[in-house]
Amino acid sequence: MVSMLATASASGAGQDTSGAISDDARALIARTRETQAAYSIIASVTLYKPDGSIVGEWSAEFHDRNQHRVETPRDRIVADCAEMTGTYLDLATMKASQNAAIARAACGVQANSKILSAKVAGPRQNRFGRVDHLVVVDEENVRTYDIATDGAILGATITGRDGKKRLIMRATYYVAKAPTDIFLPNSLGRSAVPANLRRSSN
Fold first, then answer.
1. In a domain, 105, yes or no
2. What is the pLDDT of residues 79-118, one digit of tens each?
3. Is residue 13 part of a domain?
4. Which of 22, 46, 54, 199: disulfide with 168, CB 3.0–4.6 Å?
5. What is the CATH number of the domain that holds 136?
């Protein structure tokens, strides 16, 4: 998932601790990673930096069948969530890189960190309707996700195991469709987000 890229490790595939992941949590995680739905999400993101500063920015995610795209003010990603291939573009340098860790970070609940436990903390309501609230604990963070019935992640938080906030994300725009020409690596040179929707949370 896009907003997690700032804090997620990309060193290798995460390993589940099977006994600590409930069956309904496992199914909910799979919903985000295997969805075939089409959707577009624009989100407001608050980043809590190690130096104590707080930065507000926007992020975006687009999905259609197995294809996924992520944008932030700093980077853009396209990924094939079936083949688990991904391309990352750093907008500061305009340098691109490709590896499976990019897809693992972008496609649903990020899969680059070892999951120590996961549970579903019940349904909730947000501005778009019903979501299921997932709580995931990994070796460094406690992560929460608000997941729509189509697998779209409409809210998320990251808090360090020391209790310090790292990230809050809330969707501000969500529709059940996505542009068709934005999922190939050669599309990364242009933004898929309308200028009027690129608004920070500050």
1. yes
2. 999 999 999 999 999 999 999 999 999 999 999 999 999 9
3. yes
4. 46
5. 2.50.20.10
